[in-house]
Design goal:
Blueprint: E1 2-5, E2 8-13, E3 16-21, E4 26-28, E5 33-34, H1 35-49, E6 58-62, E7 72-74, E8 85-90, E9 96-101, H2 105-113, E10 116-121, E11 135-142, H3 148-164, E12 170-173, E13 179-184, H4 191-208, E14 213-214, E15 226-229, E16 256-257, H5 259-267, H6 279-289
Parallel strand pairs: 14-15
Antiparallel strand pairs: 1-2, 2-3, 4-5, 6-7, 6-10, 8-9, 11-13, 11-15, 12-13, 12-16
Helix pairs in contact: 1-2, 3-5
């Protein structure tokens, strides 16, 4: 049930009272989309988004004035209601850090009401100091004039390499210009081992395919190639969640793909724009295909030496 107050409404979600403000504020001037649209979009996406957020500390990218204004990354969980879970740890600087954990619809709506457009979870769950990585993640970032077609080619090569190592993988668009490949792990891998493994894989592909793959960040090396970014495999490096919106205008969604779709783009049978999706398209895909990224949440394989 909703109640109103000046420039705000209060809604009850799963027995929790959430205050939603400035609903008419335009966040996407080019598309004419408001904060109300953003909240409704995340409410509709919640059934498939929340399983990929539960138990995981997050960072958020906030644009409370709209995507045509400067946004900012926020790590610290400030001003949260008592029912929003918080992950706390002591950093190398000796300072306590607090990250929001979005476990339910009420917490998600509170987060989005802050003007949060993008949600980036960390690659682990739980609160133990010895938290283990849930997956390997590779960020495939094409440097112009390379694009999604080249990223699709490398994603398929990476899939075959991981499969040969006994690891299954799933793919999604970044929602901007690249792709992400995730390979779920079992509970035996450490973050040190996962990062070293990802670095080795990226280095090997850069050596074997030097005309199309680079494994170093320097922009001078990336023109016309696909950066195979392995650095996301740190404990406190976050990657945009599947089904998260991106701060593009019009808004795009980081969307899970079938490998058949990736092959079609690689082969030129489908255009790169065919795997660029907005909220309504993503919801239709979920209705017809379910959560194509559910494999990332399964008990995965072990890292081989």
């Amino acid at each position: 049930m909703a109640t109103t107050e000046p420039e705000a409404i209060r809604v009850s979600l799963e027995g929790r009272d959430v205050r939603l403000t400035h609903l008419d504020r335009v966040l996407w001037p080019g598309a004419g989309l408001t904060k109300s649209w953003l909240l409704q979009s995340y409410l509709a996406l919640a059934p498939v988004l929340l399983p990929h957020l539960r138990g995981r500390p997050i960072t958020m990218w906030r644009y409370p004035e709209g995507v045509d204004h400067n946004g900012w990354w926020q790590n610290e969980c400030r001003g949260a209601p008592s029912w929003v879970h918080v992950y706390t740890y002591t950093g190398k600087d000796g300072r306590e850090h607090r990250h929001c954990v979005i476990d339910d619809v009420a917490s998600l709506m509170w987060l989005v009401n802050l003007g949060t457009i993008e949600i980036h979870p960390f690659p682990f769950t739980g609160t133990a100091d010895d938290a283990r990585p849930s997956w390997l993640v590779f960020d495939l970032d094409p440097g112009e004039p390379a694009g999604l077609r080249e990223a699709s080619e490398i994603a398929l090569v990476l899939r075959d390499v991981l499969e040969a190592q006994g690891l299954t993988s799933v793919a999604k668009t970044s929602g901007v210009k690249g792709m992400h490949v995730f390979a779920p792990l079992n509970a035996t891998a450490t973050f040190e081992a996962a990062k070293s493994y990802a670095r080795t894989v990226a280095g090997a592909l850069a050596s074997e395919l030097p005309d199309v793959v680079v494994d170093r960040q320097a922009r001078t090396l990336r023109t016309g190639k696909v950066l195979l970014d392995w650095l996301q495999n740190d404990r406190f490096r976050s990657t945009v969640a599947p089904y998260s919106l991106r701060a593009t205008d019009p808004p795009a969604v980081s969307t899970p793909l079938t490998w058949e779709e990736v092959r079609a783009v690689r082969a030129g049978d489908a255009s790169p724009t065919s795997i660029s999706f907005g909220v309504e398209e993503v919801l239709q895909r979920v209705r017809s295909m379910g959560d194509l990224f559910a494999g990332a949440l399964t008990q995965g394989g072990a890292l081989r030496r």
